[in-house]
Design a protein that fits this description.
The chain is mostly beta strands and about 350 residues long. Helices cover about 5% and strands about 45% of the residues.
Length: about 350
């Protein structure tokens, strides 16, 4: 698997509109710009992709979901770039989307203080979750699909039963609004980051706080666990990306190259690469093992609010305030989902 992962990395770096940090490129990594570096540019939203967590691939990699300031969520067919359907029902911006592990449902969080569960096949609204006193900035499924975690501007996190809509637990500890939440791979730990500049780790079974990670000098916009659950990556308005050791809370390293706020971070499925999207209009790819900046993707005409990897790692989606979603690809187009 490790050899396959590095082959995929080589293929992706070869297709970047390359701006590689440092001096000369490493042996074996080409600097090349392919004409088809952006596989699809998706247009249809009337306003921008407004926040971290507003892009998500379905578990089978065939559908991309998006949320926008136009109050809508969109479902897109990856192979063609066509819009399958829009999900309308929120009264304010949609700033979080997440597929259930089985891919049958999608949850959307909104500035209208609610989040909603939708059927992916029909577009039907299945359930509305209410209880937060401010915007719902982030909502995610637990790995087993039975629980939803939500973060809100009311400074609290909620854990909710998917099947009934009942609130199971309220987690309190942040001193300001929450921007991002994430489950670790086994669902036992929940991470949250927000305006108080901290990242907090919680035990999901009890709701008890485990530790607080401090170091960012401004709002924490995005948090994401590595596939093995040992590392947490965070992106901040302080222009940095930081890697943290989960079991000790130790800061592993700080990645600094963005020239403005970092809105979104994501691990590749193999855990070797981090993607970050920024107010500086770029997406940057970093190597986890040493923090090296591998590639800068340019093409958005405004800040990049959200980034996401496809489940097989062959695509990166980025969404921005320019109202577009760009799907970046590596390798041969014939290898990807139909």
């Amino acid at each position: 698997m490790k050899h396959i992962s590095w082959l995929l990395l080589f293929l992706f770096i070869s297709t970047c509109p390359l701006k590689v940090a440092g001096s000369e490129p490493e042996p074996g990594i080409k600097q090349a710009a392919f004409p088809d570096k952006v596989w699809h540019t998706l247009r249809g939203h009337k306003k921008g992709i407004c926040a971290d967590g507003t892009l998500a691939f379905s578990p089978d990699g065939r559908i991309l979901a998006s949320g926008s300031a136009d109050h809508m969520a969109g479902l897109w067919e990856l192979s063609t770039g066509s819009l399958i359907r829009t999900l309308a029902g929120h009264e304010k911006w949609v700033d979080s989307v997440c597929f259930s592990p089985d891919g049958r449902t999608l949850v959307t969080g909104s500035g209208d203080r609610t989040f909603k569960l939708w059927s992916v096949n029909s577009g039907e609204e299945l359930r509305i979750f209410q209880g937060h006193r401010s915007y719902v900035s982030s909502v995610v499924f637990s790995p087993d699909g039975y629980v939803l975690a939500s973060g809100s501007g009311d400074k609290t996190l909620g854990l909710w039963d998917v099947s009934t809509g009942r609130k199971l637990r309220t987690l309190e500890g942040h001193s300001d609004g929450i921007y991002s939440v994430a489950f670790n791979p086994d669902g036992r730990i929940l991470a949250s980051g927000g305006r108080d500049k901290t990242i907090r780790l919680w035990e999901t079974d009890t709701g008890m706080p485990l530790r607080t990670l401090r170091g960012h000098r401004n709002w924490v916009e995005s948090v994401s666990f590595s596939p093995d659950g040992n590392i947490l990556v965070s992106g901040s308005y302080d222009r940095t990306v930081r890697l943290w050791e989960i079991h000790t809370g130790k800061l592993i390293r700080t990645l600094q190259d963005h020239t403005d706020a970092v809105y979104s971070v994501a691990f590749s499925p193999d855990g070797y690469i981090i993607a970050s999207g920024s107010k500086d209009s770029t997406v940057r790819l970093w190597r986890v093992t040493d923090g090296r900046l591998l590639c800068t993707l340019e093409g958005h005409r405004g800040e990049v609010s959200s980034v996401a990897f496809s489940p097989d790692g062959r695509f990166i989606a980025s969404g921005g305030k320019d109202r577009t979603i760009k799907v970046w690809r590596q390798g041969n187009k014939s290898q990807y989902p139909n």
